[in-house]
Amino acid sequence: MATALSLFNGFKSIGYFTSWSIYNNYTPDMIPGENLTHLYYAFANIRDGEIAIGDSYADIEKQFDGKNNTFNGIHGNFGYLNSENGDFRKKYSHIKTMIAVGGWSWSKDFSIVARTVESRKKFTDSVVEFVTKYNFDGIEIDWEYPVSGGEPGNSYHEDDGKNFVKLVRLLSYKFKKYAYEKQICKRYQIGVAVSASKYTADNTDIKKLSKYVDIINIMAYDFSGSWLSETRYHANLYEDINNISEISANSSLHYYLEKVQDKKKLVLGCPFYARSFSSLKIAANDTSNGFNVQFNSVPNKGDIPKVQEGGAISYKDLYEYTLEGNSKEFESYYDDSAKAPYLYSKKNKMWVSYENNVSLKAKLDYIKQMDIGGVMVWELSQDYNNSLISEIGLAMKQAK
C-alpha cells in the first residue's frame, strides 16, 4: 500500500481536528482527507503524570452511524478515525492519525513529567499504551513552552529544554521497542510543535531534538493579538516594506533552518482564523488603512458576531466581511510585500488580519521554494467551505 509521503513526494499536509469541533457541528466525517497526509487530533491532557483522555464524550463515547466506526469497542472520534474497517480509514487509507497532547491550555505539567528519569518513564509508558490502545499512528508533543512562556500557572524548570530532548528520545526508543516486541511492521511517528519565536528554540537544543522526531511544526501565527498596543499582521509571510513587523513566517523558518540537520522535518504552520482589533485611534488624515495603529480593545460579539475571546475569529465566520457591501463596511486589502491580507473598517474603527487563498498560496509556493517538509493548519473546522484546505490539497497533488 502506498504511503501518504510516497504518494505526494514527501510533501506533508497536516490538519488539526479538535475534539470540540463536534459541538459546533463539524464531525469527523466532514474532514476533507483528500487534502491531507496527517491528521492531528487535539488534544489529550496530562493527569497524574500520564497522558489522558481530554473529552471522554467526544473522544471515545459519542456514537456515529456505521457498525465499523468503532475500534475494539471504542466509540467517539477515536473509534471513527482509527477503525481499520471504518469509513474514514477505508476512504483515506493514506492518512496518518496522531494524537496531540498539551496545547496552550494543557501544557502545565510537561515540565513535571519531563523532569526525572522516573517521571519520563511513567509518561512515555502511558503514551505507548494510549497510542496503541486507540490505534493512532503516533503522537505530537505540543509543549507550550519549555522554561518560559505559555499560560500563567504552568510549571517551569531551568532544565526544561534539556529534559524535553530526553523525554522525546525515550519515547522514540519505547515506540521502537514496542513494535519489535509485538513483531509489527509499523513505525510510530513523533511530532513536536514549536513556537515561531523564542520560547522553544531558545530553550531547547533543536538539533538534538530533531534527531528523535519526524515532524517539527513551526506555529507561524499569533504574531499579533490583544496583548499588543498597535495593530500588526497575524501570520505574515515576510516583513512589511517598512519593517514594522517584529516577526514573520520567513524569519521563523530561517531561525529553525539554522538549528536542524534535516529541513524536511520542518513544516510551516498556517492559521484558519483571524485576529481582530477595535477602537482604533485613527487620525482624521490617516492613510495607514489601519496597520500599525494604536487600538484600545478587541471586538466582542456585539461588534462582530461569532468573534471569540481575544478577538480571534474563524475564517468561515469572517468570510462574509471579505465581500463587498458587507454589514460592517470592511474594505479588503493585501500587503504584497508581507503577503498579508487584512480588513479595515474606518467607520467602525476595526481592523482584522487573516489568511486567505492568495496569502496561503504564497506560503505554499514559498514552502516548495525552501524545500521543507510541508504545511500544517490550525484548524480544519475553521475553514470556509474547505476553500483554504483545497488550496493546500492542490499543492499536495502537484508535488506528486
Automatic annotation (TrEMBL):
Alphabetical list of SMART domains matching this protein: Glyco_18
SUPFAM superfamilies for the chain: (Trans)glycosidases (SSF51445), Chitinase insertion domain (SSF54556)
Source organism, top-level taxon: Eukaryota
Sequence ranges assigned to domain GH18 in this UniProt record: 11-399
One GO BP annotation of this record: carbohydrate metabolic process
GO MF annotation terms: chitin binding
PANTHER family named in the record: CHITINASE (PTHR11177), CHITINASE 12-RELATED (PTHR11177:SF317)
Name used for this protein in its record: GH18 domain-containing protein
Organism field: Furculomyces boomerangus
